[in-house]
Amino acid sequence: MPPPPLPPHHRIIKVARDEDFRSRIGNDGRYFDLVDFSTIDVFYVPDSLTIYEFKGTLMEKFGTPVQCQRLWWWARRQNKTYRIDRPLTTEEEKLSVLHPHSQPTEINEDDALVFLKLFDPEKAQLRYVGSLYVKVSSRPSDILPKLRSLAGFCASEPIELYEEVDFDPSVMCEAIDIDLTFSASGIMTGDIICYQKSPPQNWRIYSSVVSFLRHVCDHKEEEWKRHILEEEIVVLKRQADTDRLQKDESMTVCDQLKHERDNVVRQMNELCDQSTPVILNFSRKDLEQAIEHFSW
């Protein structure tokens, strides 16, 4: 169903939560990015409401205390993906939802919030496992114990890290050098890190999350082509049904005209059968009078 119309002097605010990431990624063939903005909660907020007051609305909806909420801006990147950009400042939370932006003053540029996906090569499964603050001046090797703990791996399990960059028009998922700093690898707030166990040697089926995502992307393209063909078949069937209906209607009209014609012919024959021949008898005198004005 389409959303209800926007009331006057209101703004639409969409809220994506960690629960949305967790419920989406890995379900129904959805593996890329973080969230589908067409499926998350939508709020119609009066223009006069401040961001801080709106957090009260969120507490009523989700049960999260205001002091435990941290709101973030989302931004559209050059590759057309949407990722979180920065948290709202205290000053911004005092502003109305109509003019919420201000010059950020509380941003620690050494902190980055990254999102984590875990790939299981044996099950060919990718799922969301959470988010993590990292120091961009630190190295991915520093967070390996935390990643192993989130995945339930043993402390010595070798793991591989990849950055999910893009998936349209093709998959871009690049290996991360764990000995370079996050900053040197270009990892920043909003980025997605996929990680996995190092697969056994000669592992042939989805040895890495990269091959898995490429397979998913190719499969989606095949599904898209099949969907297009199915739509074309539906259109052709609908056209054939329309043509058949028009033909049936034409045949009905033709049969009706034939029936009317047969009725007319039948009625004429009946009239002919019912008519009585008239025999006229004229005397010789009448005939002579009738032809006396004709010359031969």
Explain how this protein is built:
It is a single chain. The chain has 296 residues and is of the alpha+beta class. The chain has 2 domains: 1-106, Ubiquitin-like (UB roll), CATH 3.10.20; 108-225, Phosphatidylinositol 3-kinase Catalytic Subunit, Chain A, domain 1 (Ubiquitin-like (UB roll)). Helices cover 35% and strands 21% of the residues. It is built from 6 helices and 9 strands. The chain has helices spanning 18-24, 51-62, 90-93, 144-151, 209-274, 284-291, and strands at 10-15, 41-46, 72-76, 82-87, 111-120, 125-135, 159-166, 172-175, 192-197. It has a 5-stranded mixed β-sheet. Strands 1-2 form a two-stranded antiparallel ribbon. The longest helix is centred in the last third of the chain and has 66 residues, at 209-274.
Question: Can you summarize this structure?
Answer:
The protein is of the alpha+beta class and 296 residues long. It folds into two domains: 1-106, Ubiquitin-like (UB roll) (Roll); 108-225, Ubiquitin-like (UB roll), CATH 3.10.20.
